[in-house]
Amino acid sequence: MNDVKSVMNDAEMHMKKALDHLEFELSRVRAGKASPDMLKGVFIDYYGVKTPIDQAANINSMDAKTLIIKPWDKSMLEAIEKAIMAANLGVTPQNDGEMIRIVLPALTEERRKELVKVVKKEAENARVAIRNIRRDAMHHVKKLLEDGLSEDDEKRAEEGIQKMTDRYVSMVEKHVDAKEKDILTV
Known about the structure:
Layout: H1 2-28, E1 43-46, E2 49-52, E3 57-63, E4 66-71, H2 77-86, E5 93-95, E6 100-103, H3 109-146, H4 151-184
Antiparallel strand pairs: 1-2, 3-4, 4-6, 5-6
C-alpha cells in the first residue's frame, strides 16, 4: 500500500508543477496592465553571466500602463534594452540614460483575441501534461498489480488518480477563465 501512496504523491507533485508552470506562463501574458511579472524569463548578459533582469535592476510599475526599470549599474542600460527587444514582448523600451521606460500600448480587439488563443494553447499544454502524468501513474499502478497488489487496491488507486486528475484539470480551467476575463475586460 505504501507503493500506491508513493505513486499518488509523485503524481500529485508533478500535477502541481504542471499547474505552477501554467500560472507562470499566464503571468507573462499581459492583459493591458503593466506588471513586473511580464519581464520574468528575460535574461541579460551581466558580466558574462545570464542573469534575470530583476536581479540586475529594480522593476516597478509607475501606473497601469508604464514599467520603470532602474539598473543598479547604469552601464547595463543598453544590455537590458536589447534583452527586452529580443524577448519579443510586443513593447519598445525607451532608454533615457538613467532608466528604461516601457509604455504598454492599449490592446486592440484583435490583439486581445490573439492573447486569448495563447492562453488557451497554454491551458491545453497543461491539460496534456496532467493527462500524461495520470497515464504514467496508472502504468505504475498496473506494475504494482503484477507485483502483488490486490485488484481492489488497484481500482481504488486508479479512482484516486482520476479524481486527482479531474481536480487539477478543473484548476486549469479556473485559471484560464480568470485570465480570459482579465484579457477581454476593456
